[in-house]
Amino acid sequence: MDVTALLPLTTNRLSLRLFTLDDVDDLYAYQSLPSVARYLYRPAHTRERSEQVAAERATRTAWHADGDKVALAVCRRDEPGLLGEVTVTLADARAAQAEIGWTIDPRYQGRGYATEAAAALAAFAFDTLGVHRLYARLDVENTGSVRVCERLGMRREAHLIENDLDGDRWGSEYIYAALAADLGGPSDK
Question: Whose CA is closest to 88, among 158, 136, 44, 24?
Fold first, then answer.
């Protein structure tokens, strides 16, 4: 399936759309911050890397094989500019399992944008993409994302202790998940 014709997704305040090259400056503004990269399991982006990421995301619209990823720019419906992003990655096509993630520019955090955008993407994943189980992996110190998972109605399924080495710091993760039936989506087909 190609998701292009199914976008943008909209909520009361937000539009979730494919990235464009016009998003590079806004993307770089938050993806270059060490405080953001810390929770993304990778180094902060350079401007060049932000350009590559925007270009890749603008064209990644397939949803059928393991590893397919849909990354959407989170924007206010009534104002220009990028607030952040939400992603859904097909982890196991046969089992219809996908990972959801979100990143909101720190300038716009604390306003409910992550929850609103993630809820819209979760509904899309369950109702349109046919996902059976949606999960999120997050650093236990990322309390904002813990709250988003809980607001979405996801359950904490695992607490992995010191399972990741971030430079010289051991990090621990939570795994949150929900089934389509848990969140009012279609049950098994």
Answer: 136
Distance CA 182, CA 155 (A): 10
pTM here is: 0.94
Task: Determine the number of helices (DSSP H) and then strands (DSSP E) in the chain.
Answer: 5, 8
Q: In terms of Cα–Cα distance, which of 81, 20, 90 is closest to 53?
A: 20
Query: Judging by DSSP bridges, how do beta strands 69-76 and 9-10 pair with one another?
Result: unpaired
Long-range own/partner contacts, residues 1-4 (CB < 8 A, 24 or more apart) = 1/62, 1/63, 1/64, 1/129, 2/61, 2/62, 2/63, 3/61, 3/62, 3/63, 3/70, 3/129, 4/61
User: What confidence tens digit (pLDDT) does each residue in 104-150 have?
Assistant: 999 999 999 999 999 999 999 999 999 999 999 999 999 999 999 99
Domains of the chain: 4-179 (3.40.630.30)
Dist CA 43 CA 32 (whole Å):
8
SS3 51: helix
